[in-house]
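[Automated response] Your request has been received and processed.

Submitted sequence:
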Amino acid sequence: MTHRILRDLPFSVVPGFRPISLDLHLPEPTDAPRPVVLQLHGGGWRMGSRTSFSPLVSVDDSFGRIVAAGFAVVAADYRLSGEAVYPAQLDDARAALAWICEHATEHGLDPERIVLWGGSAGGTIAALVGLDPTVSVRGVIDWYGPTDLRAMAEHTADQPHPTREDLWLGTAVEDAPELADAASPVNRVHAGAPPFHLAHGLADTDVPASQTTTLADALRAADVPVELELVPDVGHFWKGADPSLSDSLFDRAIAFALRVTDPTERPS
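Generated structure:
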């Protein structure tokens, strides 16, 4: 499946840093503005780019699948941890949201119907931005993202340091518990947050599935609508999943995005 792509559109210029850009994946034009998925890539906050949804799926099988469902996709870069530490990445994601609002008429986008979608580190960023009370989005899709950095520090205690989380914070998690808590979505949950779709492989050794179940529990305790998909025998980035399983995981996430952006429904 093919779709139109407008590449390398700068959306943020922070003094002292490179311009930050996005790619805009567009369905065929219609009279009605399109709902938007803002996609945030993974890579441990230290690698990756907007050009790849996931290391294991092609552009057509990821971005193209979402576009075919009727969404415009804004695939946005953000500053990596070697360039800037937390919370710079959240600032960049919010700047991408602002770009969507500013350029909505030009590209046929509906700024009132935005879903955040991130995997791994991108899932953490999506969750944190979605839980920001000053941000208005219709929903958040978080695939296997870290949600509790102090619990992640326990998981990586025997691994070489600094860890991905240490590099993101700019200091060891153990040395900055308050900062780690602030960067953990599980501590940002509040009543009235947008609905969440969470998915995680139970064989994930990079980010334990408990990171996602803990967030799901916190969302339910705050009466936030949440869907939880736990996938047996599958690892990080859906490693080990056969194509039909990967397809169904995409389909269920897209179905969630369609429900929460349904123009006949009131936003949650």
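Summary generated for your ticket: The first helix runs from residue 59 to 68. The CA atoms of residues 101 and 111 lie 5 Å apart.
If you did not submit this request, please reply to this message.
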